[in-house]
Every structure is written in C-alpha cells, then in structure tokens.
Amino acid sequence: MNEFLLIYRREADFDTQFTAEQLKEISKPWMDWMGGLAAQSILADRGNRLDSAGKVVKPNNVVTNGAYVEIKELIGGYSIIKAASLDEAAEIAKGCPILAVGGNVEVREILQM
Questions:
Q1: Is the CATH number 3.30.70.1060 carried by domain 2-9+19-109?
Q2: What is the mean pLDDT of the chain?
Q3: Which end of the chain is more exposed for a tag (fewer CB within 10 A), N or C?
Q4: Per-residue b/e over 90-109, b at no fewer than 16 CB within 10 Å?
Q5: Where are the domains positioned within the chain?
Q6: Neighbour-count burial for 21-43, b at 16+ CB within 10 Å, e otherwise
C-alpha cells in the first residue's frame, strides 16, 4: 500500500462566522467519513484542519501575510490515506464531505525520500 495526501480546498470566505451549533453540524459528516476510513484501516494519519491565517515565505527573505491571498481557494486541511494506486485514492476522495459544499480534494502520492 502507498500513502496519499488528500488536500481539502474550498472557496476562500474570510467573513463567514459560524455558531457552535453550525460548527457541530458541519463537523458531523467529516467525523463520520474519517471514522469510516479509520474503520477500514485506510487512514494513515487523521490529518488536521488549517487556520485561514498564515504567512508565505518567498526567496530573498520576503514574507507576506495571508494564506495565498492571490488565489480564490483556501486549503482547509489535509489527511494521509493508504491506497494501492492513485486511482484508488481518488475513488476514496470521492466520499469527502467538502465536495458537498463546492470544495475539492487534491490527491497526491507521497514519495519516500
């Protein structure tokens, strides 16, 4: 089995604030999906959510504020899964809850150094 990185992307929306109840409602499909992957021993690393704030470090010691402010998508988090092939990993990613809200999942194989 190989390991694959699932990168969760969505439209950048810095103005939306969620209530505790809304966050709970949003989190449930994720918990269910991740739990299903873990139960199948597919989940290699549970991954993490990423904060929308960040810095970008560029050549010549240039540091800019923001998480890729020049693009409309924001990387919201990631997970590492186990699959036999890139195609199989993409099939697994089709169940990701971010797809239901217009987001997307980038699937990349992790190569050993």
A1: yes
A2: 87
A3: C
A4: eebbeebbbeeeebebebee
A5: 2-9+19-109
A6: eeeeeeeeebeebbeebeeeebb
